[in-house]
Structure prediction request, 185 residues.
Amino acid sequence: MSGRLVLVIGGSGSGKSAYAEKFLLAQAGQRAVYLAAMEGAGEEARQRIARHRAMRAAHGAAAGRAFVTIERPVDIGGAAVLPGDDVLLEDLGNLLANELWAPGGAGAGAEERILAGVRALLERAGLLVIVSSDVFRDGLAYDAETAAYIRQLGALHCALATMAEQVVEVVCGLPVPGGGLPGRA
Prediction:
């Protein structure tokens, strides 16, 4: 792997996406790529996608750069990322859900396909910033399928944290270096 990996984690509405976009745009590099994993199934999803598009445009304008958006709901390793691109993957939770349950997804091999895809992106990208949700602290009991999804997302967080040069938890719009992981900066 030649590229740098940064993992950005936060709860819903924490500001993690805005932080990740600004962080990536501030890096000196060639092309800023927004690798979008969310599919617009349903009105709520379409509204979230529209909000993220507007936020990307505003952050790009403020930084004097623009994102090139690549929609890739599964198999991120096959995304049209060029050598030296700076890539923001939004978001790991959507990607995992797509790999598990969407047509063309890897099903039971979702975690392995995602990690292989990250490694493939890191071979080409100068910087890869992955955004993911903290869904682990609500204390609720879930059905078996949802609990399995949460465990898989946690396993991906752990695997990516070991690969990352930096893990950042975003709380109330503020970055907390280390993401609550001992020994990380």
Observations:
- The two ends are 20 Å apart (CA to CA).
- Residues 20 and 53 are 14 Å apart (CA to CA).
- The helical segments are 16-26, 43-63, 92-101, 110-124, 144-163.
- The mean pLDDT is 86.
